[in-house]
Amino acid sequence: MRFSLCNEVVRDLPFAAQCDLAASLGYEGLELAPFTLGAEPHRLPAAEIAALRRAASDSGIAITSLHWLLVAPAGLSITSDDAATRARTLDVIAGVVALAAELGAMHLVHGSPAQRVLPEGADREAARARAIDAFAFAGERARAAGVIYCIEPLDRGQTAFVNTIAEAAAIVRAIGNPALRTMLDTCSAANTEAEPLDALVAHWLPTGLIAHVHLNDPNRRAPGQGAVRFGPVLSALRAQGYGGTAAIEPFEYIPDGPTCAARAIGYLRGLLETLT
User: Fold this and answer.
1) Could you give the CA distance from residue 258 to residue 242 in angstroms, rounded to a whole number?
2) Beta carbons of 28 and 104 less than 8 angstroms apart
3) CA–CA gap between residue 120 and residue 254 (Å, rounded)
C-alpha cells in the first residue's frame, strides 16, 4: 500500500513544488485533479504532460491516479439527455483516460457528483441508463489504455446515483469489463454504508472489485482530524493484502493545505508502525 496526496489540497503551489512537498512529507505519489491543470485538461499539450511527468520523477514520486474527472471544462454530465452535452462529456472521459496513461497513472476515480445528477420524474431511469452507458464507454477506453477506471460511491448528501459499494459493484458486474471497477471512499462510506469501514474492507476487497481507496474523515477533513479511528481501516487493508494506492483526500484543509497534508501522513504512518 502506498500513500498518495490529492493535489488539489496544495493546488496553490506550482506543480513541481506540489511534488517536492509531497515527497518531503513521505508520500509516494500525487493523485491529480485534472481541473488543477487548466480549463481543458483533456487536451493538455504533449509538452505540458511531459513536464508534469518530469516534475514528479525529479521529486522521486509517482503520479498514481486522477480524480474529480469532470469538473473542467464546465457543463459536463453523464446523465444528460442533451446530445451535445453527452458527446462533449464522453470526449472528456476519453481525454482524461488518455491523460492518465500518458502521465503513468494507473487509476481514474469517477466521483464528480455535480456531473451525475439524476432528474426528478419519468426520465430518472433513462438518465441512470445513460450514466451506466457512459461508465461502459469509460471502461472500454480504460482497457485500451491499460488503466483502471473506478466508479466512486458517494454519499447521499452529494448525489442520488451510486451511493454504496454494492450499487457500484452491481454496475461493474453487469458491464463485465476488468478495467472498470469500484473503490472505497471512507468519508462517503462512513456517512452512507451500514457496515463499519473495516468490515467493508473485509467484505469487498476479496471480490477483486475494489481497485482504489480514498482516506478522509466524514467531517470532510483529513484522517486524524475527526472521529473516525483509521487504525482498524489500515489493519483491515493490510490483512487483505491491499497493495494499491490509498489517497488522502480531505475537502476542508485545516489549518491550511500543506499543514493538513503533513498532519495526515504523520498520523497514518504512525498507525502503520503500530501494526508491524
Assistant:
1) 27
2) no
3) 36
**C-alpha triplet 59, 60, 63: angle, nearest 5°:** 90
Residue spans of beta strands (DSSP E) within the chain: 2-6, 29-32, 62-66, 107-110, 148-151, 180-185, 210-215, 245-248
Question: pLDDT digit string (tens) for 181-227?
Answer: 999 999 999 999 999 999 999 999 999 999 999 999 999 999 999 99
For the chain, counts of helices (H) and of strands (E): 9, 8
Q: pTM (2 decimals)?
A: 0.97
Q: Strands 29-32 and 107-110: what pairing?
A: unpaired
- Which residue type, as a one-letter code, is found at position 109? V
Are the C-beta atoms of 95 and 51 separated by less than 8 Å?
no
Q: How many CB atoms lie within 10 A of CB 43?
A: 12
List, for residues 224-268, the tens digit of each pLDDT value. 999 999 999 999 999 999 999 999 999 999 999 999 999 999 999
Structure confidence by residue, pLDDT tens digits, 123-163? 999 999 999 999 999 999 999 999 999 999 999 999 999 99
Task: Kindly give, in sequence order, each residue whose CB lies less than 8 Å from that of residue 54, ignoring residues fewer than 6 positions away.
Answer: none
Contact in structure between 186 and 156 (CB atoms under 8 Å): no
Strand 245-248 relative to strand 180-185, pairing: unpaired
